[in-house]
Design brief:
Elements: H1 4-11, E1 16-19, E2 23-30, E3 33-35, E4 40-42, E5 45-51, H2 60-69, H3 73-94, E6 96-99, E7 103-107, E8 113-117, E9 133-134, H4 141-166, H5 171-221, H6 233-243, E10 248-255, H7 258-270, E11 276-277, E12 286-293, H8 296-309, E13 315-318
Antiparallel strand pairs: 1-2, 2-5, 3-4, 4-9, 6-7, 7-8, 10-12, 10-13, 11-12
Helix pairs in contact: 2-3
Length: 321
């Protein structure tokens, strides 16, 4: 049985798929990328990594195989164990195994398993149909040079026109005319202002009268009082609480037994963390978290600290509200 097909199916839906007795494949969402050197654009995707220390059977893969093959859970567990033995034998003999659509696993010099993901497969369903593309280079230099040339020509033309007008013999007469208009304006402008103010008062009075008539007509035709506006304080509080919800979690593990989850929680407390233990999810597992954060930036910062010390394979669970 080729269980890598079932692993690939689960990677589209889950962030962690554990192969009992072998390790776990983890996913992390990567935002869209731009390579400025090649003008290449890459859509959002799920980055796949491998953690050889997560070997406990969480039941996810076995249940999926049992349902897909219409067989028992026990048979699925046995099939996984047999496939794991085959993988280990291939690694020992050839030093590398290839999992279709997932990637390659190989031993390094210290006999630790190194995983190289397959870049051709994107397990992020929201990016379905999107593929990388290269954008042609936009050249702006030609247009900028043309704009500079046009600006220079207009400046020179304006300068030449000003010089021509300065030598015009009629300029002195224009100055005399402007002076006369200024004197006339100093006398006539106050009279003009008074006239405008009087007309403005007349128009405002007419407008106010029409407004009052409209208000009286509207009051006359209202048959019943308008309904009161009700504001829901509880709904507003709920929206604010949802905005502040901690939806980015750093996973420490997911356990079939609540007792084991509690042990892991207590150990994290002893290690100095402020952990959380969530309730049983729809898969019958009890997730234990290093912590929860309101933004991805905060979660990524905490993840780096945890990866440096406690767990190099710590990953972020994004909870959709």
């Amino acid at each position: 049985m080729k269980i890598e097909n079932y692993i690939a199916q689960l990677l589209y839906r889950y962030q962690c798929v554990t192969v009992p007795g072998f390790g776990a494949f983890l996913t992390e969402i990567q935002s869209a990328q731009l390579n400025e050197n090649t003008n290449s654009f890459f859509p959002p995707k799920k980055m796949i990594s491998f953690n050889s220390h997560l070997k406990n059977n969480d039941g996810l893969l076995a249940n999926h195989i049992a349902q897909a093959e219409k067989t028992s859970y026990g048979f699925a567990v046995s099939a996984i164990a047999f496939e794991v033995l085959s993988w280990r034998k291939t690694l020992e003999e050839n030093g590398v195994i290839t999992l279709k659509n997932i990637g390659e696993l190989r031993f390094n010099a210290d006999q630790n398993i190194i995983f190289t993901p397959n870049d051709q497969t994107n397990f992020l369903t929201s990016s379905f149909g999107l593929s990388p593309f290269v954008s042609p280079l936009v050249k702006k230099e030609i247009f900028e040079k043309k704009i500079e040339e046009i600006t220079e020509k207009e400046t020179i033309s304006l300068y030449e026109n000003e010089e021509g007008r300065s030598s015009n013999p009629f300029l002195k007469y224009a100055a005399i005319l402007v002076l006369g208009l200024g004197i006339t304006g100093s006398i006539g402008y106050p009279l003009y202002q008074n006239n405008i103010a009087t007309k403005t008062l007349i128009v405002e009075s007419a407008v106010q009268k029409k407004v009052q008539n409209k208000i009286q007509e509207a009051t006359f035709f209202i048959q019943s009082p308008l309904p009161a506006v009700t504001l829901s304080v509880d709904s507003a509080k709920t929206e604010v609480a949802e905005e502040k919800a901690m939806s980015y979690h750093i996973m420490a593990g997911a356990f079939r037994s609540e007792k084991n989850a509690r042990k892991a929680y207590n150990q994290l407390v002893k290690d100095g963390y402020t952990p959380r233990m969530l309730g049983e999810n729809k898969h019958g597992l009890f997730p234990v978290l290093y912590g929860s954060y309101a933004t991805m930036a905060e979660a990524e910062k905490a993840q780096k600290e945890i990866q440096k010390g406690e767990n190099p394979q710590a990953w972020i669970l994004v909870q959709t509200l």
